[in-house]
Amino acid sequence: MDMNSDERVVASDASLIRSPTCPACDAAERRPYYRHETWELFSCEVCRLIYLDPMPGPATLATIYHDAYNGAQTGYFTKTSSKLRRSSKRLRIIRRFSKTSGGNFLDVGCNGGFMVEAARRVGYTAWGIDPDLVSLEYARAHFPDSRYFHGVIDEFDPRDSVGAAVRFDMAYCSEVIEHVPQPQAFLRDINRLLKPGGVLYLTTPDISHWRRPRRLENWDGFCPPSHLLYFSPENLIALARRSGFELLSRRPAWKPGVKLVLQRPQR
Q1: Whether 260 contacts 243, CB under 8 Å
Q2: Is 255 a member of any domain?
Q3: pTM (2 d.p.)
Q4: How far apart (Å, rounded) are the C-alpha atoms in residues 186 and 183?
Q5: Residue 19 in contact with residue 180, Cβ under 8 Å?
Q6: What's the CATH code of the domain at 78?
Q7: Is the Cβ–Cβ distance between 210 and 257 less than 8 Å?
Q8: 151-187 pLDDT, tens per residue?
């Protein structure tokens, strides 16, 4: 879900949203961290999350998430075969932590459907959700044997063919949470959709990583206002636990990113 769409964003959005407390831990204590053009970033004094205040409102977010890849011709849509191979590799990693060999799989922020297709090919009933309709149209056209939902996670109420609620054995959410204004509610919604014992693979850029360029503008993970939140491993793990997850593994990351394997508790 990485997007370079600053040129299409109007910073004077009348529906800018103020963030008087930290989106991750609700602390009010903060200090100025950085200013980029018209956007201001703050550092939470408690958990050290870096976040925008104000954040773009619905009008700006709708602009960012509509056709983010120029008709599915750029970015993540290039080199389809290599994307499917990479998705299959990540799926193998997640399956090591899952106690199921099949079941229901959900990709939150599924983009063109590559991870959804990788899961379907190994026997999962696979679902994808994304706010970008153009991306979903690509997924539906190229990988039509799975199910897709256009919207955001708090609107998602999946049902099977007889109308029963669907819950997932495994979920995948890569490079999405940094776009989310309310990350606590976001992770709780994913937790709600998992079965007890269900596994979530979660990734996001890592602003604290030792290989992150000293100058923020030189880091490809820094792109306000598309990216609203900038995590470290410590505050992302704390947020996940606060949202109902247990940590199973923190995966190594050579590039500046956080990779976590989380689980909804069995109880």
Answers
A1: no
A2: yes
A3: 0.89
A4: 5
A5: no
A6: 3.40.50.150
A7: no
A8: 999 999 999 889 999 999 999 999 999 999 999 999 9
